Amino acid sequence: MRCLVTGGAGFLGSHLCERLLNEGNEVICLDNYFTGRMANVNHLRDNRNFELIRHDVTEPILLEVDRIFNLACPASPIHYQYNPVKTIKTSVMGAINMLGLAKRVKARILQASTSEVYGDPAVHPQTEDYWGNVNPIGIRSCYDEGKRVAETLFMDYHRQNNVDIRIVRIFNTYGPRMLPNDGRVVSNFIVQALKGEDITIYGDGSQTRSFCYVDDLIEGFIRMMRQDKIIGPVNIGNPGEFTMLELAKEVLDLTGSKSKIVYQPLPGDDPKMRRPNIDLAKSALGWEPTIPLRKGLEKTICYFDELLKK
After folding, report:
1. Which tens digits make up the pLDDT trace of 12-23?
2. In sequence order, what are the beta bridge partners of 28?
């Protein structure tokens, strides 16, 4: 297959490019390097099946491909709130441009949606038929609503133009190649612990998240694109649920850090709990995560330890 990965030099995108190449595909990696990094894909550039293009998905592009993985969009609050208008344009215009390309070349296209479409959920754990509880005018809505509109566009292109779509909703994912300054809780805690700085918990530490290691997530993408039973949306995440305080203590234990835990006020519209119901992924894809949190954290800590020494 000839595969296009938008946001291919990012955290998730670079792991996906690597996996697709290892399976013998040709890969075109598209990135504007807002949150993506050349360093994430440098080790792939000597592969004759890999092509790297600097491009912003808010602008159309003409390519001949069989598969499109639409991952382009900043995914951490610090980055997507930096330029909220650009964030929502990336989700909406990026989806329109990639769907237009898929329609033109008859490619199968996957939308990397997000658990943020559920907002601060009134249903727990979250199933795919839950419509969500999103504040449309809040500081996070540029990302939440952008991804919701992208899902709408995918469904409408499918119903109106018979475009071959797949939609996955990604829950919190972590692993090597996360940015150290992206403001996500796993990278925050690890970097603070390795530097011996105070570990910052927002709120009282009782809010929960579910953490999926990146290799498990990429396996979910691959299985979603290979099967013909469902178009989605499908939750891809780890149903293991941890409080922020539990995560902080796990990081402190694994790093041997003497950092203290300090508490700060909770940011606006921050969800109190988040955990996927993955029954659909299990039944339709035969997928469930295999890497436990402690093992995944060990690998991620090793990555950040090396990064901080440079």
Report:
1. 999 999 999 999
2. 4, 51
- In the numeric block, which tokens belong to residue 8? 């291919």
Given the DSSP bridges, would you call strands 261-264 and 212-213 parallel, antiparallel or unpaired? Answer: unpaired
Beta-carbon count within 10 A of 229 CB:
7
Whether the Cβ atoms of residue 114 and residue 59 lie closer than 8 Å to each other:
no
Q: Alpha-carbon distance 254 to 310, whole Å?
A: 21
User: Is 213 in contact with 291 (CB distance < 8 Å)?
Assistant: yes
Nearest of 146, 148, 155 to residue 109 by alpha carbon: 155
Catalytic-role residue among 80, 118, 143, 174: 143
Residue from 30, 23, 24 nearest 52 by CA = 30
Q: How far apart are CA 286 and CA 307, in angstroms?
A: 35
- Is 157 assigned a catalytic role? no
Say whether 173 sits in a helix, a strand or coil. Answer: strand
Q: What φ, ψ does residue 53 adopt, rounded to 5°?
A: -130, 125
Asked if residues 173 and 213 have their Cβ atoms less than 8 Å apart, the reply is: yes
- Give Cβ neighbours of residue 113 (< 8 Å, ≥ 6 apart): 147, 150, 151, 167, 168, 169, 170, 233
Q: How many residues does the chain have?
A: 310
Distance from chain centroid for Cα 251:
21
pTM for this model (two decimals): 0.94
Is residue 2 within 8 A of residue 68, CB to CB? The reply is: no
Distance CA 200, CA 252 (A): 12
Cis peptide before 125 (omega within 30 of 0): yes
Of 158, 59, 55, 148, the closest CA to residue 108 belongs to 158
What is residue 196's predicted lDDT score, i.e. its pLDDT? 95
